[in-house]
Backbone:
């Protein structure tokens, strides 16, 4: 399988070269069971010649791009871009005419569903580690910068009071209450809002995970949004099925889990989480877990 390269890359002497990633800003707004994430990445062309490169971004699971990425030369310059490919897994943009030592800023906005946690009325926001990996060889002047390499800011709004919020993956700063920049924020219910931030000089070595627990997250709901340009409406319906069935005399469940080599990494983690959710839903019964290697 061919190796995939993320960020901005170009070809040199039949080799793929990555441009250094200087700084990352991720701003997320969480409402209900969804989130909008704005990702800003700043790169630099450390080559001695102008180059034509490609920016590649793996679309996270359950996510959809909301608008075409914005490419801004930093501070000035002329840069051409062309969307060359968009698949369910990878989005690519061709970037040309990058001058030597020129900095370039990529802005990408996408919407994503939140994932279910192992606990009731609990959901998780995931930001993939690849958004904040060190690409290329970092120039020495950048290493001593006082600005954090990665900055994550999350604004949370819930329909019910937030019972618990935290990150099992990173150390974060948490403030309860609405953002002071929101109009009439003093009139909003304090317990239904929270703000989370992370600032680090180290690259992300694993996904950033934020867990939010609030009463009623498992209740059915329907969210509608009007298209900003066209006369259409998108609808998101979420429900947790609840059935009232007669109690059987006895139950036995057998769970078959694939533990072969193809399940390494995120796949076996997802399988483990799904198994925990199913086991938690069982009442008095007998069960058995069988693994296939």
Residues:
């Amino acid at each position: 399988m061919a190796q995939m390269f993320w960020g901005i890359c170009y070809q040199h002497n039949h080799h793929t070269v990555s441009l250094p990633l200087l700084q990352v800003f991720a701003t997320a707004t969480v409402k209900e069971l969804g989130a909008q994430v704005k990702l800003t990445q700043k790169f630099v062309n450390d080559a001695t010649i102008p180059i034509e490169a490609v920016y590649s971004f793996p679309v996270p699971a359950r996510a959809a791009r909301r608008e075409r990425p914005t490419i801004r030369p930093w501070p000035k310059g002329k840069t051409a871009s062309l969307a060359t490919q968009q698949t369910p897994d990878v989005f690519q943009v061709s970037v040309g005419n990058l001058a030597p030592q020129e900095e370039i800023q990529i802005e990408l906005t996408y919407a994503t569903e939140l994932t279910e946690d192992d606990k009731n009325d609990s959901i998780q926001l995931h930001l993939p580690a690849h958004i904040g990996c060190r690409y290329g060889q970092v120039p020495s002047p950048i290493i001593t910068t006082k600005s954090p390499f990665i900055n994550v800011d999350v604004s949370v709004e819930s329909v019910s009071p937030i019972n618990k919020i935290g990150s099992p993956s990173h150390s974060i700063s948490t403030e309860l209450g609405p953002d002071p920049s929101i109009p009439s924020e003093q009139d909003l219910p304090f317990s239904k809002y929270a703000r989370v931030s992370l600032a680090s000089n180290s690259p992300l070595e694993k996904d950033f995970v934020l867990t939010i627990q609030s009463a009623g997250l498992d209740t059915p709901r329907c969210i509608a949004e009007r298209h900003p340009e066209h006369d259409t409406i998108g609808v998101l319906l979420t429900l947790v099925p609840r059935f009232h069935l007669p109690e059987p005399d006895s139950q036995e469940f057998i769970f078959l889990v694939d533990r072969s080599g193809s399940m390494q990494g995120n796949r076996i983690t997802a399988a483990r989480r799904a198994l925990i959710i199913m086991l938690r839903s069982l009442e008095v019964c007998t069960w058995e877990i069988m693994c296939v290697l």
